[in-house]
Request: fold
Amino acid sequence: MSTTTPLHKILIAGGGAAGLELATSLGNKLGKQGIAEIVLLDASQTHIWKPLLHEVAAGTLDASEELEYMAQAYHNHFHFSLGKMRGLNREKQEITVSPTLNDAGEELIPQRTFHYDTLVMAVGSISNTFNIDGVEQHCMFLDKVSEAFKFQKHLIEASPRLLAALPENLSTATQKQLVKLGVEIKLGRRVVKITDHTIETQDGEIISADLKIWAAGIKAPDWFKDLDGLEINHINQLVVSQALQTSDANIFALGDCAACPWPGHDTTVPPRAQAAHQQASTLHKTLVNRMHDKPAIDYVYRDYGSLVSLGKYTTVGNIMGNLMGTVTIGGFIARVVYLSLYTMHQAALFGYFKTSLLTLSSLFRSTLYSRIKLH
Reply:
């Protein structure tokens, strides 16, 4: 009586840009050939590219941009499971998944455990509240699709300039555009307390506000602090090697939840969409090599510039190239470059032919439907 050896199980926790791109590429490479079983786990049933969440919140993004995980899994030879990871047992090579509840708080799916041979942590990031009094209770966040839709239905940072992590010329250009739109900007004011109707700054100013959005920084989820001994940094990100590998040889991490070295810089790779896309491509090669007992591949971050989208109004940014150096762009050109990043994400999920059809479809839809949803 013969027995078959179970397939190597690659479990990807988190269906953001990096996790979904990785699951898709591995499914078409390893899953399709029966070399490995690819499982993607996420707490939501649908995916939207995170840099577009502000447009979801504003009601300017078409609902068709939501991607069903189950459909993507079916067409790309991987499996999808609904759930939220909450714990890790490295000795048993298992993760714990929280119960799934409905809107009324009733349990639909009980707590479960999932076995893995290779685990990839791709759970993304959440807003960093810096333990400021009242933020959790009185502010809205834009970390998830559900939060963006919640904000839509209901229709901050102690730095001397906007977007302090980006080049100063980009910061200045963004500030000018916001002022032109009638936005009042208060810089160098550290928030110390938030109440139901006010925001209090360190210098004693009280700002009245009925709707408050917190977007002052990011961190990995707090439950990373108890991830069975894996090393994390001060914002809970998993510390990984140049090959995106944790101290556990069977566990990798990528995207916003990973603190990856950036050679030549006194910091780690910044949490940007382009980094997530690049890391997914590199880790794909590493995990394919892993199936054939070949070495991992080091990830090297390539910074192609920064873009700031102000929705349908304008986009500003800079792009980097070997021939032209750093070039500042704005308006229509910047908007086209910004959308091209989203197109790259779509191409990684659907291929270039289907992405071309989707782009044409979006152009046609934009002539038929209103620009803003008021529901």
